[in-house]
């Protein structure tokens, strides 16, 4: 099996690019961030304090997360309920950052992620794919962009869905998420030593995809 790991900060375009790359290569796309978001959504809806590790850990016993593919599109099921759209809300993004810093949550989801790569050719994106989840991935990409550009992209996503978002507030959330992800004690966001860094600040999606395709071909040559 071949694994391609794409890591990077929030809003860098990892999911968009990973999904398109998987489709082009005929691989399975695994959006690991969606898994953590589903845990964050459950805790938010159930009133579980996100800062209370013991409470979040206890809540895991009530959670069943599944990935299903419908016409090649990944859907996320939380206790049998499709939450693929709900987990994209801004507040759930921050909730995901909080729970993903907990080793118990990461252990809870680890086998699901690793088994996908053992059974399929995958493109997997997240914060620690190349460093922790798939350290032996054949291709590792660290995709990044400026905080301002990542905020603009998030704004465009929300507006396309008819959602209102304030730029300054969203920028604050992006910077906060970066700070949380880089400084958490468990599996912090960092570039793997053998990853290729790609700054997409001045690139569109097509250019980023083409650049990564070139990297994949070079690494698999």
Automatic annotation (TrEMBL):
Enzyme class, UniProt record, top EC level: transferase
InterPro entries documented for this protein: Cytidylate_kin, Cytidylate_kinase_dom, P-loop_NTPase
EC assignment: 2.7.4.25
Keywords attached to this entry: ATP-binding, Cytoplasm, Kinase, Nucleotide-binding, Transferase
Domain Cytidylate kinase: 4-217
Main location group: cytoplasm
Residue positions binding ATP: 8-16
Family: Belongs to the cytidylate kinase family. Type 1 subfamily.
UniProt name for this protein: Cytidylate kinase
Organism the protein comes from: Hydrogenoanaerobacterium saccharovorans
Protein encoded by which gene: cmk
């Amino acid at each position: 099996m071949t694994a391609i790991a794409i890591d990077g900060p929030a809003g860098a375009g990892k999911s968009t690019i990973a999904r398109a790359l998987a489709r082009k290569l005929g691989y399975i796309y695994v959006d690991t961030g969606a898994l953590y978001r589903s845990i964050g959504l459950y805790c938010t809806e159930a009133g579980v304090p996100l800062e209370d590790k013991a409470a979040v850990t206890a809540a895991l016993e009530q959670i069943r997360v599944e990935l299903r593919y419908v016409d090649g599109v990944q859907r996320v099921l939380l206790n049998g309920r499709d939450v693929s759209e709900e987990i994209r809300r801004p507040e759930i993004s921050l909730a995901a950052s909080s729970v993903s810093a907990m080793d118990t949550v990461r252990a809870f989801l680890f086998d699901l992620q690793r088994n996908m790569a053992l059974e399929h050719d995958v493109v997997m994106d997240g914060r620690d794919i190349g460093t922790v989840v798939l350290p032996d991935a054949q291709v590792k990409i660290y995709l990044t962009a400026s905080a301002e550009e990542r905020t603009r992209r998030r704004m465009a996503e929300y507006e396309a869905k008819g959602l209102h978002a304030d730029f300054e507030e969203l920028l604050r959330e992006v910077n906060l998420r970066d700070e949380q992800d880089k400084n958490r004690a468990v599996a912090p966001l960092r570039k793997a030593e053998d990853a290729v860094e790609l700054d997409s600040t001045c690139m569109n999606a097509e250019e980023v995809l083409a650049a990564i395709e070139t990297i994949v071909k070079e690494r698999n040559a």
